[in-house]
Amino acid sequence: MNRRTALKTTFGAVTLTVSGCLSTEPETADFRLGGPWKPARDPLDGGTMLRRIGISEALITVDSDANPAPGLATDWERLDDRQWQFDLRDDVTFHDGASFDASAAVESLRRTVDSSAFAAVPIETVEAGDETTVIVETETPFSPLPAHLSRNEAVIVSPDVINDDGSVTNPVSTGPFALDSFQSASEIVGLRYDEYYGEMPSFESIRYEVVEDDQTRRMKLENGELEMARILPYEMVGDLEVDDDIEVLTPEIPRIRFLTFDTTSEPFDDQRVRQAVHYAIDREVITESLFDGIVDPAIGPFSSDVTEWANPNLEVNAADPNRARLLLSDAGWTADNDNVRTRDGEELSVEFLTFDARSLPLIAQAIQDQLAAVGIDVDVTMMEYSAMIDRVSQNSFDGYFDSWGTLWYPDPDRLTEMFHSTDATIHHGYENDRVDKLLEDARELTDREERLERYYEVQEIIVEEAPIAVLTDYVNVVATATGVSGYEPHPTELRFGLESIMLDEQ
Question: 0.85 exceeded by the pTM?
């Protein structure tokens, strides 16, 4: 049904008129999903959930192979080393009824480019070529540009909702659902946008509910209060799989858990000691004992199950405690009869920092025991994440545990942020001129195969020199009611694809 009515949507004292949606707010949504994350209104301030549930869109999306794909832009081409042209769809309207064209896209993108979120993206200008083309010029040749324009910060919002200070309080975009109501601590309600240009959702309304407690999220699914529960703990998988009314999915996403070393201070300024830790860690034991085999041991920064950017020639990180002991002895750390290692009268004792998320404390405890077996005494300190990052960014340290999405934009240029000597934001202090050169060349090249060769070599060097020790890959646990069909987990979690879901009772 196509109802050209005006829907008044209220955000506190602000009322926004949205055209082309349902005329009344539902008492309960047709499709309900719950997750632990609190949403934000402004895409530049963590507004990822609006993208995921289908309210906002960007020029570029990400396909099922984790590559950039057409979104609001139907195509793009590199005009020269620094200039790109993006061809826009001509059948799109914003949820407030305004037309989507190059002028609107440019205004929204300029807001993004001027933000701190895009400070490392070398965009110089964003201009309209004509009504349906946008021309982006970069300061330097920059092949990952389309991938960066797929990021959540680059979603297109209506110019009418950009405040004088550049912020967005009432987001209006172009997705299959229009924002109806927003409560940052509790829920987002979206209504089907009947003027949407793409696949039309089968249901008229959706609600994302913030349910921080894992058990409560599970109970709501089991009690029929949710059609989908996201980010459930691994230990629930076995019980949920035997429930005939629930389907469980464990899609792998491009994220790794890892241990970062301070390569500028003892003892991890010595590559042999870092490699010793690498070989002392039994990743198979960790993934089997802590995650029931649901999660795989990591081999490198990327998983070959997710992307072809993963180097397929990396050796499996098999545990080899004897090799670890030899490396430590070679580095001068000799063991006595009690397996206490010393060098120049100093005991090999280190402190590893962690924060309480993504099972990192459990992994830290397991590694503490595994390193003790080769003579490395480890003290594990738990901190708030911000305090941990503040400490390792200002002072020397031994190591810290972290977890990063490695393709949160779909390009291996993410390795620059991980390992470049001046551009990395992981605090390892690692410097390698060859790695820098490979990363710098790869972001300029156009040919995919030439880029692939360079990123493969970077991964080989990183595994060998070990500024970090990769530990495990990452999966999300998503459970749906059995009446839900058509759900396909997205490889980078960019969107949930709710417009493709069917409910059996409908």
Answer: yes
